[in-house]
Every structure is written in structure tokens, then in C-alpha cells.
Design a protein that fits this description.
alpha+beta, 38% helix, elongated, 71 residues, 3 strands, 3-stranded antiparallel sheet
Length: 71
């Protein structure tokens, strides 16, 4: 028997001087667990710009939650 699920993926990043310092990804399946990930690509730049990067991640999470409510 074939079982299928629809999956929505979202990606984003926090860039400083055109360089992606932190990348974000999310997977929202039609059923099951939602996954949200944050990967710090440049530790030093992240520490120096943590407030901005964390704000970007909070905004990304808000967009993911908005997409979830639309499904």
C-alpha cells in the first residue's frame, strides 16, 4: 500500500556583509513532527553579531509558524 505525505520546506539565513553567518531550515510535513534547524557557519561572526542573528532566527521561526497555520 502506498502512503504519501506532503512536505513544505523553508530555508533562510542571517547574513553579515553579504556572508551567510547562520543558516536556517525547516520541514513541515502534512502529518508528523515539524523540524526547525539553525546552523552556525561562522562562530566568530555569529558571536560578534549574535543579537542580529538571533533576531533573524526568531523571525524565521515566526514565518515557519505562519506557514504551519496555513496548512
Amino acid at each position: 500500500m502506498l502512503n504519501t505525505t506532503k512536505n513544505t520546506s523553508m530555508n533562510g539565513n542571517s547574513s553579515i556583509e553579504e556572508k551567510a553567518v547562520v543558516t536556517f531550515s525547516a520541514s513541515i510535513p502534512s502529518a508528523g513532527e515539524i523540524t526547525i534547524n539553525k546552523r552556525i557557519a561562522d562562530r566568530r561572526a555569529y558571536i560578534e553579531n549574535q543579537e542580529e542573528c538571533d533576531t533573524d532566527f526568531a523571525n524565521f521561526e515566526a514565518e515557519v509558524m505562519a506557514a504551519l497555520k496555513e496548512m
